[in-house]
Amino acid sequence: MRTFHTSTDAALPLTGERTIPGLDVENYWFRRHEVVYQRLASRCAGREVLEAGCGEGYGADLIAAVASRVVALDYDQSTVAHVRARYPRVQVMHGNLAALPLPDGSVDAVVNFQVIEHLWDQAQFVSECARVLRPSGVLMVSTPNRITFSPGRDTPINPFHTRELNADELTQLLLDAGFATVTMSGVFHGPRLVDMDARHGGSIIDAQVARAVADAPWPPDLLADVAAVRADDFEIVDAADRDIDTSLDLVAIAVRS
After folding, report:
1. What distance in Å separates the CA atoms of residue 186 and residue 171, rounded to the nearest whole number?
2. What's the pLDDT tens digit per position in 230-252?
3. Fewest CB within 10 A of the end CB: N or C in the chain?
4. CB-based contacts of 204: which residues, under 8 Å, 6+ apart?
5. What is the pTM assigned to this prediction?
6. Which domains does the chain have, with CATH numbers?
7. Over the stretch 172-186, which tens digit does the pLDDT of each residue have?
8. Both ends of the chain: CA-CA distance in Å?
């Protein structure tokens, strides 16, 4: 759930379906996405990479700084045009994630961050990822943790999500597609964000959502805190070291046999 604003500074409208860099009111969500790209980019170094569901394209461009080649795929034609114009070092394609337009065994890594929860046929998509990966290739997935993102609900809060997952469900989905190993970690608030939570009634997330639902003005202190969030204000912690069910987002790394 996000504040639905548009901006003349962004070529793509902010609808709530994808996050966009450079907007103060969207900065919390952008940084929460960005941290996963930053922490996992090293796994793409020197590799041929597919980003399946690239959105605005900032993540594919970040990966392109270290990868040998990045193919960015998205279903939305206007998004494809935007990425092609803004990020020239990314090879962008239009296509359906249920039928990836790549040959078998053609990439070393597939990146799918904050996308799988939007898909109707998640099992088909994960099977397609396994198909296009070379032996020992890696699928990296991040997605909102259903337990904390839509607590106590059978249907997602976000109207753009079709099915949200918990850690066990995501792990099983990947194993069922034939991946040999799956490791899980979680995204958590670091100390600065914990302080911000305390300043805004216990949750800076709930404070933002409340303004979006009510279509209400943002208090200056909330806007200032949201605009000040950095990627390094989030922590990514292995499931062995912290209760994964309390994480904000899940981060899975699956290795093809």
Report:
1. 13
2. 999 999 999 999 999 999 999 99
3. C
4. 28, 193, 196, 197, 222, 225, 226
5. 0.92
6. 24-188+235-256 (3.40.50.150)
7. 999 999 999 999 999
8. 37
Instruction: Extract the tokens encoding 39.
Output: 């922490």
> Residue 156 has what pLDDT?
86
Calpha distance 126→9 (Å, rounded): 35
Using DSSP's 3-state secondary structure scheme, residue 33 falls into helix
Return the HEC string of 158-190.
CCCCCCCECHHHHHHHHHHCCEEEEEEEEEEEC
pLDDT > 70? residue 57: yes
Task: Mention every residue, 6+ apart, whose C-beta is less than 8 A from residue 11.
Answer: 82, 85, 86
Phi-psi region of 27 (alpha: psi -120 to 50; beta: other; left: phi over 0): alpha
| H or E segment and range at residue 109 | strand 107-113
> Are β-strands 107-113 and 91-94 bridged in parallel, bridged antiparallel, or unpaired?
unpaired
Percent of the chain with pLDDT over 70: 94
